[in-house]
Amino acid sequence: MDDDLLSQFAATQRAQGLAANTIRNRHSIIRGLLGASQKSLLDLTIHDLRERLGRDGISVGTRRTERAAFAAVF
After folding, report:
1. DSSP H helical ranges for 1-74
2. Residues 47 and 7: beta-carbon distance below 8 Å
3. If you compute the radius of gyration of the chain from its CA atoms, what whole number of angstroms results?
4. Residue 12 binned pLDDT confidence (cut-offs 50, 70, 90)
5. pLDDT band, residue 39 (cuts 50/70/90)
6. What is the DSSP letter of 41?
7. Least enclosed by CB within 10 Å: which of 23, 37, 42, 64?
8. Cα(63)–Cα(49) distance, integer angstroms
9. Half-sphere exposure of 49 (CA within 13 A, CB side)
10. 22 near 58, Cβ under 8 Å?
């Protein structure tokens, strides 16, 4: 199911005229979130997103990029 949802998300982004690199980056960010949480896309909560963004060792720029990807998909 996650693969179908991510494919639909990618199609939406292409329809919006986003760059292929942006789409790939967002896909990678969401895949990282799914792997870290061990949940499906539809089972994620705001707590899961906050936990991912609040993890140690990432830069402010990475947090901003990931937050934008989360906002785009959710």
Report:
1. 2-15, 20-37, 46-53, 60-73
2. no
3. 12
4. very high
5. very high
6. G
7. 42
8. 11
9. 18
10. no
